[in-house]
Here is the input.
Amino acid sequence: MTPHPDPQAGAAVKAADRAHVFHSWSAQGLIDPLAVAGAEGSYFWDYDGNRYLDFTSGLVYTNIGHQHPKVVAAIQEQAGRLTTFAPAFAVEARSEAARLIAERTPGDLDKIFFTNGGAEAVENAIRMARLHTGRPKVLSAYRSYHGGTATAINLTGDPRRWPSDNGTSGVVHFWAPFLYRSPFYSETEEQECARALQHLEDTIAFEGPATIAAIILETIPGTAGIMTPPPGYLAGVREICDRYGIVFVLDEVMAGFGRTGEWFAADHFGVIPDLLTFAKGVNSGYVPLGGVAISAEIAATFETRPYPGGLTYSGHPLACAAAVATINVMEEEKVVEQAAHIGATVFGPGLRELAERHPSVGEVRGTGVFWALDLVRNKETREPLVPYNATGAANAPMAAFAAACKSQGLWPFVNMNRTHVVPPCNISEAEAKEGLAALDAALSVADEHTA
Here is the structure.
């Protein structure tokens, strides 16, 4: 679709937004939201006719791109047949979505509890773990994001937690492995894995194993920096959980449904959690949907004992119809395979080549269409390009880099001192290379701030 400029319409949209919309995670008077006129595939555009290659996939959820015609048609067809129905009933779209998801989750995670998004999925997974074990505490990593609701935000490790951290939620944070910025002074992946597992063991010992209901980890952390865990780490956590009777929860809200080049990131590691949370890519974000995939053992806890949780729109027919269509599209069009191919042949080699030429790129991390560039002032010291949680003038180098991306027609995903490469999973080779060329130009701006 070709953008048709209509600045007057754009001004009206912007005015109504500024007058009435309260935006998340923002100081309302300091933001200037772009008015979006439309989107298709890997692109979106504004009312002035500017088109952007979407290297954010919305918020890392449009895994099949914007406006896929088969999914749009499925939503329209479902709306004409049964727009909504209460969650206590068996509905075809809901049943089929659950079946298709269960077929793809690892191991025996064959029961699906539907939510409206990822944060609610995490909330319910933790509730299930606490009820299943009768224990109060949950361990989560400092470098993590699990959602904005009450329990999920306390589980989160990044600074968005701070204003809502009540200190009484039963959450204990620990350091997960991250060799590039190792908290354990490791020099190899083997050292980082061993030391991180020992640190987790020590944390459990001092907290009291019998008090811990669950350990929750993003299989590959997303917003926190796309740090692929070293070989053996997730298997080691699984073994620790088994030894102490702790529920192992993997958060695949961002990494799931093809983004890493597998249906779920857990498939890369051969690890089966007790609970797995999902959202985002399950239906490309077309209608809000999330959920928890539940093991047979935990599902059995609630076979004759009521589960004390639910949502009015759990398994909403429109959302589930979108999920059915999305999963079928991903199978028919080999979207998971495309994500793996693009990662191995375009993004992996291309981003590493950029790192060799740009002094601002300290490390390249990722797989599939799930990558991060760690931007630094100095490659030797690894000093971040901007300080942790920088704002205002302190964040100027990253702001300049983001502006340079947009001037090149690329919409970037920027967080702290990183830019993430997270376009739709079905991005074409030509589009991926277009994005790399735009990043190449924008990184020259970041280079100006290196020592």
In short: The first strand starts at residue 36 and ends at 40. The chain has a mean pLDDT of 97. The chain is about 40% helix and 15% strand. The radius of gyration is 22 Å.
